[in-house]
Amino acid sequence: MEKNKIISIEHLTKRFPVGKGEFTALKDINLEFRKGEFAGLVGPSGSGKTTMLNIIGSLDSPSEGKAMVLGRSIADLSHQEAAALRNRHIGFIFQEYHLLPVYTVYENVEFSLLLQGMEASKRKKAVMEALEWVDLTDKVDSKPAKLSGGESQRVAIARAMVKRPEILLADEPSANLDAKNAHNILQLMKKLNQELETTFIFSTHDEKVMQYLDRIISLEDGKVVKDEKMKVEF
Amino acid sequence: MLTFKLALKNLLGAGMRTWLNVAVLSLAYIVIIFYNGLIDGWNQQARHDSILWEYGQGQLWHQSYDPYDPFTLQEAHGTLPQSADSKALIPILITQGSIYPQGRMQSVQLKGIPPHQQLLALPTHSLDNTTHVMPALIGKRMANTTKLRKGDQVLIRWRDKNGTFDAREIVITEIFDSDVSSIDNGQVWLPLQGLQEMTGLQEQATLWVAGGGYQPTSLEHWKFQSQDALLANLDAVIQSKKASGFIIYTLLLGIALLAIFDTQVLSIFRRQKEIGTYMALGMTRLQVVGLFTLEGGANSLLATVVGSLYGVPLLLYLANTGFAMPAASDNYGLTIAERIYPVYSVGLILGTIALVVIAATLVSFLPSRKIAKMNPTLALKGKVQ
Prior knowledge:
The structure holds two protein chains of two kinds. Chain A is an alpha/beta fold. Chain A contains seven helices and ten strands. Chain A has helices at 49-56, 79-89, 105-116, 120-133, 149-161, 179-196, 207-210; strands at 5-18, 21-34, 38-42, 64-69, 72-73, 90-93, 167-171, 199-204, 215-220, 223-229. A six-stranded mixed β-sheet of chain A has the order 6-7-8-3-9-10, with helices on both faces. In chain A, helix 6 (179-196) links the parallel strand 7 and strand 8. The two termini of chain A are 17 Å apart. Chain B is an alpha+beta fold. Chain B has two domains: 2-52 and 233-381, no CATH class; 64-220, no CATH class. Chain B has helices at residues 2-13, 16-55, 140-146, 192-199, 227-230, 232-270, 272-280, 285-321, 346-368, 376-381; strands spanning 58-62, 89-99, 106-113, 134-139, 153-159, 165-176, 187-191, 207-210, 222-226, 323-324, 339-340. The radius of gyration of chain B is 31 Å and the shape is elongated. Chains A and B meet through helix 2 and helix 3 of A and helix 1, helix 7, helix 8 and helix 10 of B.
């Protein structure tokens, strides 16, 4: 594997069955992502952004072509191997936060580490550190229903980052937030990206998000139509 | 352990829905344990009383004797061979007769028993009477039916060994109170020697009740009925009661399990995004299936705790005070006490817990299997699959 190249996508095509026919969400995509990138997949609804994130996140697999993530072929992973990859190496942030409703903020953040079997003292330290990053140490015992949208998304960031993943996939993370909260969480993610060298890949059509991206990959009808570097490569 | 903790947390987090399921399930627990305890208590009491009052350690029947056919009594009597161990046996002679309380005629069985016997709990010492009137012993049911009281004199009629009718007065010297209706209804107990003289069947008996030291041997014209054989009818009745109880509590348990099943189906339908999130966070599909199955199964564990909170005091109270049986139940011909004291064995309690936990886990697993086929990306979107 070439140094710092952590995701490699070659001739990737993804089709979904629709009725008796098929819908092609991604067509012959070729992309690479390097460690520490702060990149975004942008494009209108139905352009294939979320499908691409799902494949990189091993939640879905390609119909054709190859998707290599951290040296592993997504198509060849068993359910257990894909789950382990997500648990240890990939963090997710969703538009609707997807916090577990019966757990407290602390427990939501702790969840991935519990699955990893991390010992209690290390786990507590890591959770509190993650909550400090997102400035939510005063909300450890709150349930998600008591949090604002901005706070919920910060908890989701802490939950995704607590395991120090190599890759963080954020699907429309600012869509449910007002401008101020959107900027706050983007600044936070940028900071974490710089400090921890985590590769962030966004799916977005939000101009506010695009301002922060170092690389913008434009998708249309399942094809890459533009791949721009906004800053000097890491 | 992690899955179990998560399941319990999810379950408690579901609030009222969980507590409704738990309430119904805990009620099922209590009903199953109480009903079976009641039947077991009845069984123990009935066996104990039947042995104490009627069966002893077994009975040696004349080969012609059939307790369900009174016509056999004419021939069913004899003497024991010399080889028989008669020290550990007490003889009972049975013959058909009639009694005339307040001028009404009623068919009875006249039973002769040695007044000094101590093997059965019958108060036969009251038959050891020196007056010229024949002493007689009857049970409370017989006394109730005939309106006879202690000290009353009444006419009885019988046939002797040659078939000739004879009659005489007897005096009721004692009325005994026993749960064993088969030694009470329609029966008059007389001194053995007196009945033998009345019938001309000196030294003869219809059956012999065995005591503790009796060793059954093969005897011509006599057949030994073991305790188990004599109690077989009672066991059959108990089993049929258990079977009818099984239907009742199966229905109750079925309602509780249906509620859990329903909750699980609804839960999987409503919590698709949560299922997708678990998978995105790194749980395997099987782990999520296990989580949801345990959530459903944990209803039964919570029901065990909740059920024990109100069930243990309630069941202990009933075990101490007993459960009053309907007034007429002792006239059904069954050995049944006025109050039954339920007996809750460890096997019954553990068996019931195991039954409910396994059943609840199974009905939780059935809908949870669907998760194993779920597409995580569709689950995250909350799309029905």
